[in-house]
Amino acid sequence: MPDLQLHTNTTSKARSSFERLTKYIRVRSDAGARFVEFDFAIGDPSLFVELIMPPGAFEAFCKNNHVIHMTDEQMAEVDAELQKWRYGEDTLMSRNHNRSA
Q1: What's the Cα-to-Cα distance from 60 to each of 14, 32, 49, 50, 91, rounded to whole Å?
Q2: What does the alpha-carbon distance between residue 29 and residue 37 come to, in Å, rounded to a whole number?
Q3: pLDDT value for 81
Q4: What is the tens place of the pLDDT at every residue in 48-59?
């Protein structure tokens, strides 16, 4: 079986353009929790992955990626978009959700 070779573009131009993108985090876990649960986005706060790390690894991750915390406005936009996907707009489910809120 041949070795799997991954192809990456490691030119300095490609690397520097990636490094210039803003990396965002949004911590979801409580302070002092055993693990840090957080959202991580590159370039667009609304496109994120959910990650979990021990606190020490999280601190190193943030330092290595030069992250910034999402602003309150960015978090509100992300939450509104998630609500729209979960409940839709002007649907029976969204009306039921709005009544219970």
Answers
A1: 23, 17, 18, 17, 44
A2: 5
A3: 86
A4: 999 999 999 999
Instruction: Return d(Cα 32, Cα 17) in angstroms, integer.
Output: 35
Exposure string for 15-27, b = 16+ CB within 10 A, e = fewer: eeeeeeeebbbbe
The residues pairing with 51 across neighbouring beta strands, listed in sequence order, are: 38
Torsion of CA 55, 57, 60, 66, to 10 degrees: -80
Q: 57: closest CA among 32, 25, 35, 29? A: 35
In one-letter notation, the amino acid at residue 19 is E
Q: Write down the pTM of the prediction.
A: 0.70
